[in-house]
Amino acid sequence: MSRYRGPRLRVVRRLGDLPGLTRKSARRSYPPGQHGQERKKKSEYAVRLEEKQKLRFNYGVTEKQLLRYVRKARRVSGSTGLVLLQLLEMRLDNVIFRLGMAPTIPAARQLVNHGHITVNDRVVSIASYQCRAGEVIGVKNQDKSRAIVQTNLEFPGLANVPTHLDFDKAKLTARVTGVVEREWVALQINELLVVEYYSRIA
User: What is residue 130's DSSP assignment?
Assistant: First the structure.
């Protein structure tokens, strides 16, 4: 399954607020489609599927990638749901978004893919790169790269920078000081339901 490139507000109407996908808010509060306004009781499977889809669309990962993250989270000691969220939050494209260098995660992914972002003074163009504690994330020392990021910083996607990131706006550099804490995850989600969803199929 390829990455979603369709209308984003359609997804927001079905799944709720997704800060990583878009900054716009839907004008209608009910799901899209002919039967959107019909109130049906959701099955347990439907509830778990929706939580999983929230993760997928918010972080912009494919089904295959998300399944890989779930399997990786299971191998780590501790809460599988929390580890899964930490793996997704520590992706380079998400870190760029949380720093305010890009308005959304898709925009952050484009910044990374186009070679505007550096990790430890080396250009990294892989959006799924896992950031680790002690690494320094910066902007390529070119006028074009710095201008794009400075423009984005005037209107950041989320107001506050998480505690695991130490950001210097003047130098456009940030240090990763640790792993994200649960309360700093901006997405409203029940990660345990996602783990339960995958326990049936993987």
Answer: B
Q: What is the pTM of this model?
A: 0.87
DSSP 26-67: -S--S-SSTTTT---PPPHHHHHHHHHHHHHHHHT--HHHHH
Q: Tell me the per-residue pLDDT of 120-157, one tens digit each, with 9 for 90 and over.
A: 999 999 999 999 999 999 999 888 999 999 998 888 77
β partners of residue 122: 119
Residue 57, judged by CB atoms within 10 A of its CB (0-12, 13-18, 19+), counts as: buried
Sequence-ordered strand ranges (E) for 98-191: 117-119, 122-123, 136-139, 165-168, 173-176
Q: Where do the domains of the chain lie, and which CATH numbers do they carry?
A: 8-87+187-199 (1.10.1050.10), 91-178 (3.10.290.10)
Question: Which residues make Cβ contacts (< 8 Å) with residue 109, sequence separation at least 6?
Answer: 60, 93, 127
